[in-house]
Amino acid sequence: MIVILADGAVPTHPVPLRILREANRLVACDGAWRMALALGRAPDVVVGDGDSLGADGRETLAQRGVPFLNEAEQETNDLCKAFRHARRTAAEGDAIAILGATGRREDHALGNIFHLLDFAVDFPHGAAGTGVPPVSMVTDAGTFEPVLPPGGTWTVSAGTPVSVFAPLPGTVMASEGLAWPLEGVSFDALWRGTLNRVTGSTFSVRTNRPALIYRTHPAS
Fold first, then answer.
1. Could you tell me which residues come within 8 angstroms of residue 71 by beta carbon, excluding any fewer than 6 positions away?
2. What is the pTM for the complete model shown?
3. Residue 144: inside a domain, yes or no?
4. pLDDT, tens digit (0-9, with 9 covering 90-100), for 88-135
5. Is residue 155 part of a domain?
6. Which one of 139, 157, 187 terminates a domain?
7. Which domain CATH number covers 9?
8. Residue 182's beta-bridge partner residues?
9. Considering 139, 164, 192, which residue would you say is the last residue of a domain?
C-alpha cells in the first residue's frame, strides 16, 4: 500500500489512521510533510512545486534524509504530481490510498475527488474481471473509489450509506443490493445517484462510463 498525504484536513478517524500506519510507503504533497510528522510518520518522499515548503522545510527534510522532488509545472496540482510519482514507483499488487485531500477549501476538495477518475484510467490494474482500480480517497467520513466499465462489487455492512457520482454524459448504470436501483436513472446531474444505502452484505454497480462510488466507514 502506498499512501499519498495531501495538505488538507488532518485525518482523525481510525480508518485513515490505520491506513497511514500500515502503509509501505508514504508520499507527501509539498506542505503535507508537516502533517505527516505530526501524525508520527516521516514521509519517504515529498513531491510538489515547493510553494508550501519554504527554506525551513527544505532544510528539515534534508536533515531527515527525505528527498524532495520538485515538479514546478502548474498545469496540475500537487496531488496529481504525487500520484504520478506513486504510480511510477508502485510495485506489482500495490494499491494507492489518498488521505488529507478534503476538509479545507471546497473547490480544492471537489477537484481532488474528481481527479480520481483520471487516476483510475492511469492506474487501472485491479482484481481480474472487475472495473475497480486499486486507488481510493479516504476521508474521516468515508471512502471514494472510482469504478470503470464493466463495474464492480463491494462487501460492506447492511445499511451502509452509498452515493454514486456519474459526471460523464451518456452514463448508464445498473445495480444489485441497493435500496434504490440505478436502472433507468438519468444521470443528468451529479446528485442523481446520491444518498442510497446497501440492503445486504454486498452491492454491485455495472456502468458503461467511469464513475465514483462513495461509502461511509463502518459505525463501529
1. 47, 48, 49, 81, 84
2. 0.92
3. no
4. 999 888 999 999 999 989 999 999 999 999 999 888 665 444 578 899
5. yes
6. 139
7. 3.40.50.10240
8. none
9. 139
